[in-house]
Here is the input.
Amino acid sequence: MKNKTAIFIFLFALLLLAFISDIFTGNASISVREAWAALFGTSGDAITDEIILNYRLPKAITAVIAGSALSLSGLLMQTLFRNPLAGPDVLGVSAGAGLGVALLTMLSGTVVYPIISSLGSMAQVIAAIAGAALVLLLILAVSARIKDSITILVLGMIFGYVASAMVTILQSFADPDSLKVFVTWTFGSLGGVTWGKMPLLLAFVLTGTAIAFFMQKALNSLLLGENYAASAGLNIRRTRFLIITIAAITTGAVTAFTGPIAFVGVVIPHFARAFFGTVNHKTILPATLLLGSILMLVCDVVSQIPITNRTLPINAVTAIFGAPMIVWIVLKRKKL
Amino acid sequence: MCLKANKHLPIHFVLSFFLLLWGCQSGQNREKGDGEGELLTSVTIGYADGFSIDHFGEYTKVTIHNPWTKEKKPYAVYYLCKTDTTTLPPDGIPLKVPLSSLVVNTFSYFEFLRLLDETDAISGVTDGFRIYTPAILHQIDKGEIVDLGDPFNPNVERTMSLKPQAIINSAYAQLDSYSERLVQAGFPIIYSLEWMEKSPLARAEWIKLIAAFFDKEAEADSIFTAIEGRYLDLQAKVKDVPHQQSVMAGDNFQGTWYVPGGNSFNATLFRDAGLDYRYRNNKESGSIGLDIESVLTQFGKAAFWIGCEADTYGELAEKDAKYLLLESVKKRQVFNNHSRTTPSGGNDYFESAIANPDLILSDLVKAAYPELLPHYSFTYIQPLEEEAAREK
Here is the structure.
């Protein structure tokens, strides 16, 4: 137990370090001293203050939110389906969000333009949430009729494929500029969440996380198998409904605000189990949130390294940078 | 100070920064209707639909129209003033002109700025490696112009660090997060919407818009009048050709052949060059996707092919033997637009051509009716070279 507390303290320290590093690194040449001054007052230069307070700070907070939410969603999916490959995208929610954004991008120059333009930059978020919600409703409608969780997993993936197929069709009709706008969205971006949008993202993610914390016992009993959990008095259908809803809402919200971000959600829960050597959600749940945030912050720092004047898409950095870390863990422990 | 109340600025120090940076006075002039002064003159815009420029005594109002609304609602309004004491209406973006530092996130403005002798104002660009204009490449090498990366996702921090007075950014039907960020930070964005114009002269006329920001309206007017004169002269020349040559356009991209719609920039160009284009009466303003079978049946007999992607006939044959069935290929009357390119992908056709429609038109006329322009040599397009297919 003492050991666990020590690890948690260590992870908190790491999170803090990663958070600060994320704020102190970037493409504008701002010294640590200037950044510090901007953070706690003013650096004397309005643009430096703007970059630190209104760009890097919300970006770092978004990294924490996205990293923890996607990892949480992945953990919930892995527990519900008892499948190590499950991740936030298995329910097809991310693909649904993608479909929403693709529809918006391709239709934005048509008769619906006045509606879209009146929403401003929230249009993309709303479209993504609508797409994600559509898939979620389909999944919930199906799950009410199906007893077996694995069937839901398969159906979720099918819905995801259908949404992706529709995106492909839309892309084939799109003009090159709209196509590039959409493709840029699929790169993922932590920098798009302004202070104005932050409360909405936080509301979705915090609600989901809070409910998940209250479900630790139910999640633990699910690990033993649905039959055992049912015989232990767990209302399987209600639990399943809640888990799917939380996972879909957190994933959908994050994807809507940042675009798709792969890898983190599938891998972090494994990482957390390996780190703490337990599957108990009382430990794994907070550990997953912490590790997800840390990885995302580190990935954001890495993605700022300019390569021929371009920064790397966060959606790619998570896998490219995260994979070696996981392989290292696996090699060290000989298993996950 | 050229300033207005902006609900997007949450932090006062940003406001105070711009108070220091520019000088005209905050526009709270309620006595004169909507805060506007008396309209004195408007700049004559002959072709472009996308903008208007009105002079109001102490300031100039530049309006960029919204091409996605029927009633031409403003997409953006700018109030340009020259002195620090001008009172401006509050419903637009205030700017003190002439500008001296600018981030340009669209290639078509390089030539406008060059023609106006304002290239030195450029402090940042995007996609530097794809730029053709040698002067700009030279300045990037010297570090005088900063490359900000992907034009669809430019580096926000670097853009802000340059502290440009304005940013020229392509506008699309939905707000991009780059523009949103910069607007929130108080940077004025000049939206580039010239690409929505349907005719070559209309696009070129946008030089008048950018000139207003440099207080060079008279220069822009004379530059455009000269271009227009040359364009119309040539257009008049081809009117009398006894037989209109038929033309096909575009190329195959992964199975789909994109040809210009009848209401598009290229279709207008073909019409003005006296070329017979099959889709000239089509209403589409973008491109039309065709499969190779439709292209062969619809354009098989076209005498000329403009906008081929290959450099040699050998390459064409290697790509797809079906190309050899086209009349234009048999007659060796195929042209690409690779005359001015750089090894890293820069192509002047996508840069200076927008500002020089007379030259694009001359290119087409030279290709189809060479006898009309005996002394002209191609600027942007060139005939495919004869070269045997490479051994596989």
Q: What stands out?
A: The interface with chain A takes residues 10-11, 13-14, 16-17, 66, 68-69, 128-129, 147-150, 152-153, 155-158, 160-161, 163, 170, 172-177, 180-181, 184-186, 256, 286-287, 289 of chain B (CB under 8 Å). The first strand of chain B starts at residue 41 and ends at 42. The CA atoms of residues 68 and 321 of chain B lie 42 Å apart.
